[in-house]
Design brief:
This protein is of the alpha/beta class and 412 residues long. It has a single domain (16-354), classed as TIM Barrel. The protein is built from 12 helices and 18 strands. The chain has helices spanning 27-31, 35-52, 69-74, 79-89, 119-132, 157-160, 180-197, 214-224, 229-232, 247-259, 278-295, 338-350; strands at residues 16-20, 56-58, 94-99, 150-153, 202-208, 235-240, 265-270, 299-302, 326-328, 334-336, 359-360, 365-367, 373-375, 379-381, 385-388, 394-396, 400-402, 405-408. The strands form 4 sheets. An 8-stranded parallel barrel has the order 1-2-3-4-5-6-7-8, surrounded by 4 helices. Strands 11-12-13-18-15-16 form a 6-stranded antiparallel sheet, covered by helices on one side. Strands 9-10 form a two-stranded antiparallel sheet. It is globular. Residues 1-7 have low confidence and may be disordered.
């Protein structure tokens, strides 16, 4: 049965805050086929997402739900994880699903050739995935709570093309893997399949790892040299994990706007490490969000929800142990870090205001179209009223407030 009232296509003009891989579970649960435990873990994650007030959650075929077409060919039951992911969200947060021919990370461990041998079969797989979650009454997931209308095509192809996979199990030349023309072919095929299954869906693509660097920009130019690649995109996806306060990311956004004028830009992966201190991490979240908006992006997704439990050997490589919004606590569970408190307060204010169209105001703030100022560095006088986003403290007119702060204009 068709859902009673399908929502309109997702807004891409209003600025939104998201979390990358927020609804995800340990692989040991999935590998054991323990679906009840998977679902219970997702419910707990969704409680944290709701507390934060995030607008969007992004899935990932390299993590969860693992619904790349090669995963589904090996293990068709993997679609049950995607069903659990959609059920956990419950229509209370927008979902960005990912489609890809191979798992989104460590792709080189699964195939010697990034481009599928049979693109028609790949498109059929993508159509089936998208059809299951589009809410049009045809082959929908049983009990679908809300349509999934945002689909991203794979992840960080420019990284695959320049680096061997993390934990690579074989030798290969990354320069001959996921070449720009190959990614363009996958993007075009995926977009065609997505739109055939769900005309209301939006297609995200590129997911560039280095949009600020020469090799990332060169990769973008070569993808766009393929006829049809630009038209395949509704939204441009960019990433960065630069150890700064968003300046490099802003330069990557600016470059993408030149290459793809008129296309909305979403930052679907970014973060800041707490190695500089928890308060500095919280300030940097505001700086990254503000600079992204000032450069022209209309969404920022933080990576990720919760830091993993402490490893016996903290110096051992693996993961991003200090970048998330929550920390794991002994005995299970999580607790919010200062960066989570800031995310929550910022999300609350953005429900009544909008960062889209913000402009830079000096070197430490952006000004919203409403006249509100989002201060991410330094200090500023309060003309109307202000909220310190880290402490939650309110400031009246005539005060001086330090970053990170939300400063409302003086009432006329």
């Amino acid at each position: 049965m068709q859902l009673a009232a399908l929502p309109p296509p997702p807004a891409i003009d209003r600025f939104q805050l998201g979390i990358n891989e927020a609804l995800a579970v340990p692989s040991k649960f999935r590998e054991a086929g323990d679906l009840p435990r998977v679902e219970a873990a997702l419910v707990l994650d969704m409680e944290s997402v709701a507390w934060l007030g995030a607008d969007l959650v992004r899935g990932h075929t390299g993590n969860f739900p693992a619904i790349s077409c090669s995963d589904l060919s090996r293990q068709p039951s993997a679609i049950a994880d995607a069903d659990a992911w959609v059920r956990a969200a419950g229509g209370k947060v927008g979902l960005v699903g990912m489609v890809s021919p191979w798992p989104g990370n460590q792709t080189g461990n699964y195939t010697e050739d990034y481009l599928p041998d049979d693109l028609a079969a790949y498109e059929a797989c993508v159509r089936g995935i998208v059809e299951r979650y589009d809410g049009d009454g045809t082959a929908d997931m049983p009990g679908l709570p809300a349509p999934v209308l945002l689909w991203e095509v794979d992840n960080e192809p420019d990284l695959k093309n320049t680096n061997t996979a993390r934990g690579a199990t074989r030798d290969y030349d990354p320069r001959q893997f996921a070449r720009p023309d190959e990614y363009a072919a996958v993007l075009i095929s995926s977009a065609r399949a997505i739109r055939e299954a769900s005309p209301s869906a939006r297609v995200l693509g590129l997911g560039l790892y280095r949009p600020h660097a020469p090799n990332g920009r060169g990769y973008l130019r070569e993808v766009l040299a393929t006829p049809g690649a630009s038209d395949a995109l509704d939204i441009v996806s960019l990433h960065t994990y630069a150890d700064d306060d968003g300046a490099l990311l802003a330069s990557g956004i600016a470059a993408a706007r030149v290459a793809l004028p008129g296309k909305p830009i979403w930052v679907t992966e970014t973060n800041a490490d707490d190695k500089h201190g928890p308060e500095e991490q919280a300030r940097r979240l505001v700086a990254i969000v503000a600079r992204s908006a000032g450069a022209g992006a209309s969404a920022v997704f933080w990576h990720t929800l919760a830091d993993p439990p402490a490893r016996p050997d903290p110096s051992a490589p693996g993961g991003m142990p200090g970048t998330a919004l929550f920390r794991s606590v002994p005995g299970g569970g999580v607790e919010p870090k200062p960066v989570a408190e800031v995310f929550r307060r910022l999300a609350e204010r953005l429900r009544a205001d909008d960062l889209a169209g913000a402009t830079m105001l000096g070197d430490g703030a952006v000004k919203l179209r409403s006249g509100t100022v989002l201060l991410f560095d330094g200090s500023a006088p309060v003309l109307g009223r202000a909220t310190h986003l880290l402490s939650g403290r309110s400031f009246d007119a005539g005060s001086i407030v330090v970053a990170p702060a939300w400063i409302e204009p003086d009432s006329p």
